[in-house]
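Duplicate of #3305? Posting structure anyway:
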């Protein structure tokens, strides 16, 4: 069966799908733009559907929207008409859904004439069907029809505005599905459902269409809300609380434990903006790369928790704009292992897509602010840990999480803007990695600090979710990674939080009184990583916790700040203890491997946001950093971003960073014979 499907759409449906509210100051402009697009492109409001019977138990289906709409949307983006491009893209998405639904009804009629009935609809790329199965669907249709579609390496159909599925069939009419019934559809997050979820965040109210039975956390993640879920939705951390409005007043619920069965209104209480580190120290550029006047480039730092995008004037060699924000993958888990597991359990590609989409969204926003077009972009360079680089490439990172932790190709990757949805001659560079857990962010940090070229012996430490450490000594650069986990970012600590407004960032205890400082000087909401170091130091100093980590004052310490009590429990102590021991043991193993002592280390580079703000003296006192480290510490700030910027500005950046990365050694601590002994030794607080 092959059939052309005629389609129509109305303005209200398009604007609701775009989440454009009537209260928006730009609502009237959106209405006029939408009206113009509907009138000028209605001849392309059509699609073609194919249905092929594959025995009596399966039928394969393909629907392709008129490609003119996709081509026109791409043209609008290229010419800088972003509102029109986004709106036409939304119209195309809506029409594709409508075409799929209409064709399904037609297919049901045809199958019924053969005495066959649909009992289940399965879509490649959904949570229940691997995306690779799209190959089987297309092969089945191609056996009977010449179809204008091809697959990318990532199994994405081109034209993009295409949809594939297959139906399981039966001859028992009592088991059939009657057309498209939302409640029976597997896509619980389909935005065309008629169940309304209203989300109030920072006094702004937005409405979304979700499906009956959809998980609230999944829905919030899909719609791009920043919500704390360090455990990745496994119902372990109890940090995804939201306020639900009921007829009896507001009640607290956990998003991960809530299914949306009817229209719901919730208020997000924990959607604070974080303070993202973008300051850095960078060694001077030796020779600037020549560039045409008006050309710009983008440096992108992709951290597990936070991200920064900086826009550079390549002619004047200056920073002209930037945005700092949370990694949009954060609600899927605080650490990379949680995110890898999510992709494994949900068919893959979700986290890859939202990461690429976020970078594109930010770049487009900066272009608008700067009055620039895509054609003005010469380069985009990206650094991040190895898992993030895999996500950007669209590769499955599962192999990075299991022994032997093999990286397929650690070298620098050169591609074009299409990886981020851009057209034209934009050169996109993914900086090289060293190993599964020493990534491009560390290579960029080495490049920014000239770790190979500075005189003497240098210890490099980046205390994040992964504790990356390196030693430059005796002509060698030895690297390692320790599984510190997210404790130092407050993610899995009961009183912990990220560096948000209201996070306690400095803490002291004097004559029975708590002294503290919060970010933005507002009421305390929890302790960020640097304050947790302070708190651990105070507990040891006051004798509330002994050197083994045992609580001497019950099961917890209560910290009362401005009328709010925060509980620091014994299990929190253990998590910090394990994290600090991993870092400290890794440092000792590197020094042993390099055959030098700490006394022979000339400087200690601290990289990353956490290292830039922690009290070094307190870090030494709890045993996170070795004795004698304090006077040798030099703070680099966001060295990953610094190295990426330097790479873009430096004439010989590609050659230099390739030599640097290829010359680094990697010490796998899990295979290092003395690591376990060192780890046990470092469990003591000292």
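Output from current build:
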């Amino acid at each position: 069966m092959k059939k052309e499907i005629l389609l129509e759409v109305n303005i209200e449906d398009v604007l609701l799908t775009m989440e454009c509210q009537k209260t928006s100051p730009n609502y009237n402009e959106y209405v006029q733009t939408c009206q113009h697009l509907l009138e000028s492109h209605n001849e392309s409001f059509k699609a073609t559907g194919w249905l092929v019977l594959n025995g009596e138990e399966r039928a394969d289906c393909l629907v392709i929207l008129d490609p003119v709409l996709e081509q026109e949307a791409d043209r609008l983006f290229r010419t800088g008409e972003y509102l029109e491009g986004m709106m036409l893209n939304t119209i195309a998405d809506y029409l594709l859904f409508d075409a799929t639904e209409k064709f399904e009804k037609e297919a049901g009629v045809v199958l019924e004439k053969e005495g066959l009935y649909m009992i289940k609809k399965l879509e490649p790329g959904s949570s229940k069907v691997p995306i690779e199965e799209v190959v089987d669907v297309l092969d089945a249709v191609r056996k009977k029809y010449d179809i204008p579609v091809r697959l990318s390496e990532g199994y994405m159909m081109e034209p993009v505005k295409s949809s594939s599925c297959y139906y399981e069939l039966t001859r028992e009419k009592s088991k059939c599905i009657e057309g498209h019934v939302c409640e029976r559809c597997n896509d619980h997050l389909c935005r065309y459902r008629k169940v309304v979820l209203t989300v109030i965040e920072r006094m702004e109210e937005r409405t979304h269409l979700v499906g009956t039975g959809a998980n609230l956390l999944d829905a919030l993640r899909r719609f791009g809300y920043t919500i704390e879920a360090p455990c990745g939705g496994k119902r372990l951390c109890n940090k995804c609380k939201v306020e639900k409005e009921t007829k009896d007043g507001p009640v607290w619920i956990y998003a991960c434990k809530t299914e949306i069965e009817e229209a719901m209104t919730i208020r997000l209480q924990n959607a604070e903006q974080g303070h993202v580190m973008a300051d850095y120290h960078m060694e001077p550029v030796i020779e600037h790369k020549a560039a045409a006047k008006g050309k710009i480039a983008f440096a992108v730092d992709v951290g597990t928790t936070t991200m920064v995008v900086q826009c550079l004037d390549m002619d004047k060699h200056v920073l002209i704009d930037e945005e700092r924000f949370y990694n949009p993958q954060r609600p899927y888990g605080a650490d990379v292992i949680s995110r890898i597991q999510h992709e494994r359990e949900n068919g893959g590609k979700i986290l890859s897509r939202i990461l690429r989409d976020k970078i594109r969204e930010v770049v487009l926003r900066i272009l608008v602010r700067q009055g620039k077009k895509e054609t003005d972009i010469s380069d985009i360079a990206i650094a991040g840990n190895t898992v993030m680089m895999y996500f950007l490439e669209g590769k499955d990172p599962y192999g990075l999480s299991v022994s032997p932790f093999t990286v397929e190709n650690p070298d620098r990757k050169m591609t074009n803007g299409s990886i981020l949805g851009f057209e034209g001659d934009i050169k996109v560079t993914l900086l090289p990695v060293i190993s599964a857990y020493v990534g491009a962010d560390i290579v960029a940090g080495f490049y920014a600090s000239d770790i190979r070229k500075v005189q003497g012996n240098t210890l490099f430490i980046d205390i994040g979710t992964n504790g990356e450490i390196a030693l430059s000594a005796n002509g060698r650069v030895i690297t390692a990674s320790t599984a510190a986990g997210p404790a130092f970012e407050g993610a899995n600590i009961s009183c912990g939080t990220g560096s948000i407004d209201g996070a306690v960032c400095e803490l002291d205890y004097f004559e029975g009184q708590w002294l503290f400082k919060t970010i933005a000087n507002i009421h305390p909401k929890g302790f960020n990583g640097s304050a947790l170091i302070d708190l651990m130091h105070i507990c040891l100093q006051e004798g509330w916790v002994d050197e083994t980590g045992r609580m001497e004052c019950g099961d917890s310490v209560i910290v009362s700040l401005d009328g709010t009590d925060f509980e620091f429990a014994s299990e929190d102590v253990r998590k910090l203890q394990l994290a600090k021991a991993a870092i400290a043991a890794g440092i000792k193993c590197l020094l042993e491997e390099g055959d030098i002592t700490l006394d022979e280390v000339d400087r200690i580079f601290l990289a990353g946001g956490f290292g830039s703000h922690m009290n070094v003296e307190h870090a030494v006192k709890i045993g996170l950093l070795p004795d004698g480290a304090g006077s040798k510490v030099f703070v680099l700030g966001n060295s990953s971003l610094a190295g990426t910027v330097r790479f873009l500005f430096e004439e010989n950046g590609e050659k230099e960073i390739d030599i640097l990365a290829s010359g680094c050694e990697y010490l796998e601590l899990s295979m290092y014979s003395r690591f376990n002994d060192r780890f046990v030794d470092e469990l003591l607080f000292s």
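Confirmed duplicate; merging threads. DSSP finds 17 helices and 31 strands in the chain. The mean pLDDT is 87.
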